[in-house]
Structures are given as C-alpha cells and as structure tokens.
Design a protein that fits this description.
Order of helices and strands: EEHHHHHHHHHHHHHHHH
Radius of gyration: 35 Å
Oligomer: single chain
Distance between the termini: 78 Å
Helix content: 55-70%
Number of helices: 16
Strand content: under 5%
Length: 412
C-alpha cells in the first residue's frame, strides 16, 4: 500500500499524513486537502504531485498564518490608538469646558477657529493632490524639444506653490509657458491665477492663449469673458459670456457678468433678468442683493425690500444690503425702519467704507443722496465694469467662475 509523507515546512522531515506536529522539530504541520483531479493520475505522478503540493500549500498556509497574526496586531494597535484618541478628546473637551465656565476663553469662537483650521488643512491637501495631477498632465501635453528644461520649470513652479511661495512659483511657471505656447492647461492655470488676483491684463493674455489652444475649455471661456468685461471690451465680453451659457449651461458668474455690463449701459430691465437668472443658478445673499438693487433702480420698492431682506437673513452683517434697504425703506416712507438699517451700516466694518460714511451722513442730516451709488461704481466708469466697486461681489463672482467647472486656480 502506497504511503504519502507530509513534509515539515521548517526542517523538511517526512511525517505520516494526518500527524499534527513534526516528529523531528515539533513544528505544527499545515493542513492540506488532496485535489479531486489527483485520483485520475497514475501512481508516480500522484506521488510527485502530492509531495510538491504539500510543500507549496504548507508554505502558503504558513505565510497566511503570519499575515493573519500581523493583521490582528494591527487591529489591536488601531483599537488602542482609537481609545487613546477618545481619552485625549474627552480631556481636551473637559479643559475647554472648565476654561469657558471660568471666562478665560470663548468656547464658540474656539470651536469656529478649530473647524476653520480643519477646513483649511483639508483644502491644502486637496490642492496638493490637484497640483500633482495637473503637473503630470501639463508635462505629458508638452510637444516641444526642450522637455528636460520644461519639466524642471513646471516641477519647480508647483513645488514653490506648495511652499506658499506663490509669486516665485507663478514666475517659474511663466518661464515654462514661454516654452510651450500651445499648452492649454498651463496657460489656463496661470491665467486663472491672475484672474483671481485681479490682474486683468496678464489674466487676459494667458486665458486668450489657453482658449486658442483648447476652444472647449468652458471655465477659461467664462473667466476670459469676465476679464474682458472688466477691461472695457463689452462686445467681446458679452459674446464670451453668452457662449458660455449656451455651451455649458447657466451659471451665476456668467449671468451676473452680463447683468453688470447691462447696468453699465443703464439697461436696468435687461440687467434684472440676468440677475434673476444668476439667483436661479445659485441662490445666495449676494444674488438676492443684486436683484434687490435692480428692483430699487426700477422704483419697484416692495420687490426690492423683499430680496434685500432675504440677502441679510442669516448674515451676521451685510452692510451693502442694509444700505440699499435703508434707501428703499426711506423711499417707501418707513423712516424708523430705514434709520435702523442705516444705523447698522454706520457701525459696521464694511469692505467699502463709502457706504458707512454715506449712512452716517444720512443719519446726521436726514437727507438721502440724490444719485446713490449702486454696486459702488460711478455711472461714467469704463473699466472694472463687472468686479469694480464692491469687493464682496468681486470675490464671490471670481470664486463662482473658478468653481463653475472645477477649480484649478493658481493661488489655491
């Protein structure tokens, strides 16, 4: 009768099949199962096959056992760390509670700062990952003869951006862009950085090149339209913004930009339609504010008040909205409510100080300005037609444009 040996995975000594421990070294033998196909093979092949199978399966089972032990150790370590983190959290929470009750710190303010820091850290990690991916795409799209130099400039530029050396990083990327006039993503990245930084001449130059290289880049088209509008190129800006809406759909930035261009032409009825489309595309305090301003200019005070009140709902302070609301209420004969609105503006830290000074003058004299500035711009202005006069609106429209089709801005 043929016998099959079970070889020890440690000392390779033969043992009877079914024995648990090695007779020579005492190592626990790994368990195996004979494959069903082996019954159809001849004796010589079976013996060779079984001995080889025992060795291989034993080695695999031993490795699996070691891996299982390591996973158990890892799980135990994770549970310990989670327990330690929980105890640390409880300790910190207790300390904060004691300090807050003692009046040493403001728990609400601390919680707000902590959440802001967490959001900032998350944003930095996302930006780093986005820059890494974009760097790879930019280099792979290069079609010139100086690949080594181009790659060095691009890598160094993104490294400087990651180290918060934004100005040096962008200058280095500009050197790379000079070697690749057709690299749409690189020119778009630099152009969007200058667009966000309100450097319209440089932004227009790079965004124009990016659009020539990639006519389907809708974020570039939208940003270029807003840049042209601020540069006084009204006809070109309108075409780009309308094309953006037609090709990529409605967006707050495109409709708001068109509305501001129509305001510059004193076409308030048409501007109102664009502002309402902007509100529909992205409801926000700022969108309600611009709709309220348009209604005010059209002497539709009830509708103006409705949207301006929506603009200040949930906002700790929105001086610009309170200022226009004060004008609306004054024209509607609600003197006390108007005075309360102007009082808020007079005490606020507004981005645009002329609102505060105007509100204080109204409170002091009781006289409304004959021709109040809406959006903080002069009617004779020929530049900054979209982002001029109101820093808050300018910031919001730039963020909306860069976020409309995915953010790749240089300063982020």
């Amino acid at each position: 009768m043929r016998t099959v040996s079970h070889y020890c995975q440690k000392c390779l000594a033969g043992n009877p099949l079914g024995q648990e421990l090695c007779g020579r070294c005492g190592t626990r033998l790994m368990l195996v199962v004979e494959p069903p196909a082996a019954r159809y093979e001849d004796g010589a092949m079976i013996a060779t096959h079984e001995e080889h199978l025992l060795e291989r399966v034993s080695a695999l089972e031993n490795r699996l056992l070691r891996m299982t032990e390591k996973l158990e150790q890892t799980l135990d370590l994770m549970l310990r760390q989670a327990k330690n983190s929980y105890h640390d959290h409880v300790l910190i929470d207790t300390i904060i509670t004691v300090l807050a009750e003692s009046g040493v710190l403001d728990a609400a303010k601390l919680n707000k700062l902590w959440r802001e820091r967490c959001r900032q850290d998350t944003a930095e990690q996302e930006t780093a990952a986005r820059h890494k991916e974009l760097r790879t795409k930019i280099i792979s799209a290069y079609r010139g003869t100086n690949l080594a130099t181009f790659e060095r400039y691009v890598s160094e530029g993104f490294k400087l951006l990651g180290e918060k050396e934004t100005a040096r990083g962008i200058r280095t990327l500009e050197r790379a862009a000079a070697l690749a006039s057709g690299n749409a993503q690189l020119h778009a990245f630099i152009g969007e950085h200058f667009f966000e930084a309100n450097k319209n001449v440089l932004a227009r130059d790079y965004l124009e090149r990016a659009l020539v290289a990639d006519s389907k880049n809708e974020k570039v088209r939208l940003s270029l339209g807003l840049t042209c509008g601020d540069g006084g190129e009204v006809k070109r800006a309108k075409k780009l913004l309308k094309d953006s809406i037609q090709l990529a759909g409605r967006s707050f930035a495109a409709h708001y930009g068109l509305g501001r261009l129509l305001v510059a032409e004193k076409k308030w009825e048409e501007a109102l339609k664009e502002f309402k489309s902007a509100l529909s595309a992205r409801p926000s305090p700022e969108a309600n504010y611009v709709v309220g301003c348009a209604y005010f200019r059209l002497n539709r005070f009830r509708m103006a008040a409705r949207h301006l009140r929506k603009a200040i709902e949930g906002e700790s302070v929105y001086p610009e909205a309170f200022y226009v609301l004060g004008l609306v209420l004054s024209r509607s004969g609600e003197a006390d409510a108007a005075r309360a609105a102007f009082q808020v503006v007079s005490e606020a830290e507004a981005d645009e100080p002329h609102y505060r000074s105007s509100a204080r003058r109204i409170l002091r004299t009781g006289n409304l300005p004959a021709n109040p500035k809406i959006f903080g711009i002069n009617e004779s202005a020929t530049k900054a037609l979209i982002t001029g006069g109101d820093k808050r609106l300018a910031r919001v429209v730039r963020e909306a444009a860069l976020g409309a089709f995915g953010v790749e801005s240089g300063s982020s």
